[in-house]
């Protein structure tokens, strides 16, 4: 039997909570938690994905250290690259295994070129941080209209198994299971 997954929303903007309110399906389990309470909540869960604030706030390091793996989603644009040094410094400083996933990639973009660029940027940042570079997932999540259409319905790629979005998520999930 596969472990039961829980989506934990610890971000004050509460976007995952709002999404969950719209959801008609019972899975995944959902939990809203204050950032300071997440480490103790994680101990009671089989598997969890935690939505964190996009800023360094009190309590964040405790969550990072309590996690089994950190997934840093990045978009292929300069504003994301500008914020990446601070994000990687926090993630890598936690001592928790960290990976990077390219998210919302233009469907027409060559992932090989993007992956090479992203890896070069990450290596440069990690050289400055004197830290080992995290792995970049070899499978991107591409920008898809369907993903935006599902959000207001409380749905996700997992609810639409015949779609490219679902196939992309499956590839990432399989890679994460073999990583570390």
**How far apart are the first and last residues' alpha carbons, in Å?**
22 Å
- Outline: globular
CATH class of the largest domain: Alpha Beta
- Radius of gyration, in Å, reads 16 Å
What is the fourth-level CATH superfamily of the largest domain? P-loop containing nucleotide triphosphate hydrolases
Count the helices. How many?
7
Strand content: 5-15%
Largest sheet: 3 strands, parallel
Low-confidence stretches: none
Strand order of the largest sheet: 2-1-3
When the domains are counted, the total is 2
Overall SS class:
alpha/beta
Strand and helix map with partners:
Elements: E1 5-9, H1 15-22, E2 29-32, H2 38-43, E3 47-51, H3 60-66, E4 70-74, H4 78-93, E5 98-102, H5 111-129, E6 135-136, H6 145-150, H7 164-178
Parallel strand pairs: 1-2, 1-3, 4-5, 5-6
Helix pairs in contact: 4-5
Question: What this model shows, in words?
Answer:
With 180 residues, the chain is α/β, with parallel strands linked by helices. The chain folds into 2 domains: 68 residues; 112 residues, 3-Layer(aba) Sandwich (Rossmann fold), CATH 3.40.50. 43% of the residues lie in helices and 14% in strands. The chain is built from 7 helices and 6 strands, in the order βαβαβαβαβαβαα. A 3-stranded parallel beta sheet has the order 2-1-3, covered by helices on one side. A 3-stranded parallel beta sheet has the order 4-5-6. Helix 4 links the parallel strand 4 and strand 5. Helix 4 packs across helix 5. The longest helix has 19 residues. The chain is globular, with a radius of gyration of 16 Å. The protein starts with a strand and ends with a helix. The mean pLDDT is 90.
């Amino acid at each position: 039997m596969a472990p039961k997954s829980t989506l934990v929303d610890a971000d004050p903007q509460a976007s995952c909570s709002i999404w969950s309110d719209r959801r008609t399906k019972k899975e995944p389990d959902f939990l809203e938690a204050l950032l300071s309470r997440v480490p103790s909540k994680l101990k009671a869960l089989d598997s969890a994905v935690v939505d964190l604030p996009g800023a360094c706030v009190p309590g964040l390091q405790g969550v990072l250290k309590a996690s089994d793996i950190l997934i840093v989603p990045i978009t292929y644009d300069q504003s994301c690259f500008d914020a990446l040094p601070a994000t990687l410094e926090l993630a890598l400083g936690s001592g928790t295994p960290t990976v990077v996933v390219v998210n919302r990639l233009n469907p027409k973009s060559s992932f090989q070129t993007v992956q090479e660029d992203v890896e070069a940027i990450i290596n440069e940042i990690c050289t400055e941080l004197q830290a080992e570079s995290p792995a970049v997932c070899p499978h991107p999540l591409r920008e898809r209209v369907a993903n935006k259409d599902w959000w207001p319905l409380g749905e996700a790629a997992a609810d639409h198994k015949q779609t490219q979005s679902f196939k992309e998520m499956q590839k990432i999930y399989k890679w994460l299971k073999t990583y570390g």
